[in-house]
Design goal:
Layout lengths: L2 H13 L1 H19 L6 H28 L1 H7 L12 H20 L3 H21 L5 H20 L4 H24 L1 H7 L4 H5 L1 H18 L2 H4 L7 H17 L10 H22 L1
Length: 285
């Protein structure tokens, strides 16, 4: 493979486009929850597309910076990542972060001043997280969950805003908070080597798992509430049942709390619960 192609491939790996692209789903869903099919017509469609692109670029830049700052941990947990494997340099990762972030803010400014401010704020928050908060128990987990959830608000505000986008953001925040705690357990060995003070490192795996399970149960209990309070049509419950089943499967893989059997599988089930929960919200609008 020519050198240029190898470099571009490594940069793409740093940006993790598939992961960053998940922001598109959140933004589009937020737009749909806020405005229905009108979100995809006329000026709304253009605003939503720009908001989705901006969110994706913010996420891609944050991924590159994360790799730059996580070299020590990745040498243990993910030695095939671009920097530990020698396919990219720390300087290249920093440059990519700056470039993508600058373009993201510029694109967001085409939607509104609010979107530009939020995009710039997200860049700063994610940088602070990657540099200082990643090893802070719960705070770091909550920051990541909030940034993921905010994609729905970002999309909703692009087409006028609404309560349903807020509900979607709340669900996304809760599920991602559980997933972040599970990832702490998955990465506990590398995080300990790197000196990160995550929930699993500071309080131990059992305590981190109890927190994750408590949050998971809270999400399960709250699933019917949008219908109970009249914010969703009963059709919401059809897909919400699937989301609940995925959450229970995730919980089963987090037992026993002293040594979870399959935290990686639990993380996958949580992703499934996230998708099904979003489908439920779209169906019940």
């Amino acid at each position: 493979m020519p050198r240029l192609l190898r470099t571009l491939n490594a940069w793409a790996d740093l940006a993790r486009p598939l992961n960053a692209g998940l922001a598109v789903v959140g933004v589009v869903l937020g737009g749909y929850l806020a405005a229905g099919v009108d979100a995809f017509a006329g000026a709304n469609a253009q605003a939503l597309a720009l908001a989705a692109l901006a969110a994706t670029l913010v996420g891609a830049g944050a991924n590159a910076l994360n790799d730059r700052l996580d070299v020590a941990t990745d040498r243990v947990n993910r030695p095939n990542r671009p920097i530990p494997s020698g396919r990219a340099t720390e300087r290249q990762a920093t440059t990519l972060w700056l470039a993508l972030s600058a373009v993201a803010v510029g694109v967001a400014a085409q939607v509104s001043t609010w979107h530009a401010t939020v995009a710039a704020g997200s860049v700063v928050v994610l940088a602070v997280y990657s540099r200082w908060l990643k090893g802070t128990p719960l705070v770091g987990n909550a920051v990541v969950a909030a940034v993921v959830a905010f994609a729905l608000l970002f999309g909703g505000e692009a087409v006028g805003g609404g309560v349903l986008a807020v509900l979607g953001a709340a669900f996304a925040f809760a599920v991602n908070l559980v997933r972040e705690l599970v990832k702490d357990v998955e990465d506990v060995d590398g995080d300990r080597v790197a000196g990160l003070n995550t929930a699993a490192v500071r309080w131990g795996v059992p305590a981190a798992m109890r927190l994750a399970l408590a949050a998971l149960v809270a999400v399960l209990v709250s699933l019917p509430l949008p219908v109970v309070f009249g914010r969703m049509e009963p059709s919401y419950l059809l897909a919400a049942v699937g989301a609940g089943a995925a959450l229970m499967a995730a919980g089963a893989n987090l037992l026993p709390v002293s040594q979870p059997t399959h935290p990686g599988r639990a993380s996958a089930w949580l992703k499934g619960a996230m998708v099904l929960g979003m489908v439920a919200l779209a169906m019940g609008r």
